[in-house]
């Protein structure tokens, strides 16, 4: 069985490939990326979401496809449509898609494109599994160096509970679903076992670093402005701030523990992720 992985050279894609190698022969794997030179150890094919006329031939012989959502916000619904249409032409049997937690009810601006892709999958003739991934803990650990330098961890999530998990947790879940039977037609809400507020996150940074790093909650516009000051592009900074506000309303919380059920172990605690980031 050939398994294709889109976005295979990305942060999630790399982890998925490593997890798949533990479950199947590397000869069964095909990396689908813009630059095949970025992948070693498995077959790699040129795959560009923006070149629909070339996608079907790249999918030839692939039975199961992991469609990792694109990173070009605003273009993803169209890009994913290109991939799904190509998969239909290439007679791919099943697509596993990485969506967002509660895509059908989330207030997060990213949810719309994900939901459009989900509905397109459900209306196709393909078998599908939808992985509604929650937040990556790395989304917050990436801010630790700046927090240590600035003396505070800033955000707009107030006291919202965030049930994040590490990329490797989500990657392992994808590998399980790609290589096991019984997941067809399922939509899984995936999140971490260990929810926290950003105040608790900052307290853990303080504990492990030995420095006093309080959490400073900012208004959405002020947080966006601060992010822009750090060199983050305007649109992305405004998006990050708005998503934090959504976290304050519960959009990043889930206590179903489906992710740990799929991978057969507890998800990575945020304290461990912080320890790794500090190291």
TrEMBL record:
InterPro entries: NAD(P)-bd_dom (IPR016040), NAD(P)-bd_dom_sf (IPR036291), NmrA-type_oxidoreductase (IPR052718)
Pfam family name, one: NAD_binding_10
Domain of life per record: Bacteria
SUPFAM superfamilies according to UniProt: NAD(P)-binding Rossmann-fold domains
Stretches assigned to the NAD(P)-binding domain: 7-180
Name this polypeptide is given: SDR family oxidoreductase
Natural source organism: Croceimicrobium hydrocarbonivorans
């Amino acid at each position: 069985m050939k398994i294709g992985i889109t976005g295979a050279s990305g942060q999630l894609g790399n982890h998925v490939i490593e997890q798949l190698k533990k479950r199947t022969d590397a000869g069964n794997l095909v990396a689908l990326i813009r630059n095949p030179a970025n992948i070693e150890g498995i077959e790699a094919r040129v795959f560009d979401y923006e070149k629909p006329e070339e996608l079907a031939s790249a999918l030839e012989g692939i039975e199961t496809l992991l469609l990792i959502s694109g990173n070009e916000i605003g273009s993803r619904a169209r890009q994913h449509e290109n991939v799904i249409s190509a998969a239909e032409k290439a007679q791919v049997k099943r697509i596993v898609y990485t969506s967002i937690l509660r895509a059908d009810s989330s207030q997060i601006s990213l949810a719309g494109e994900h939901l459009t892709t989900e509905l397109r999958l459900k209306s196709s003739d393909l078998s599908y599994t939808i992985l509604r991934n929650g937040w990556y803990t790395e989304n917050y650990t990436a801010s630790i160096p700046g927090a240590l330098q600035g003396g505070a961890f800033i955000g707009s999530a107030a006291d919202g509970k965030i049930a994040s998990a590490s990329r490797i947790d989500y990657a392992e879940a994808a590998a399980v679903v790609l290589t096991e039977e019984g997941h067809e037609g399922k939509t899984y809400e995936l999140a971490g076992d260990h929810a926290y507020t950003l105040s608790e996150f900052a307290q853990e940074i303080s504990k492990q670093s030995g420095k006093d790093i309080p959490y400073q909650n900012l208004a959405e516009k002020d947080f966006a402005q601060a992010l822009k000051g750090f060199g983050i592009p305007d649109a992305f900074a405004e998006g990050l701030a708005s998503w934090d506000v959504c976290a304050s309303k519960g959009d990043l919380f889930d206590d179903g523990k489906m992710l740990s059920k799929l991978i057969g172990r507890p998800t990575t605690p945020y304290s461990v992720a912080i320890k790794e980031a500090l190291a």
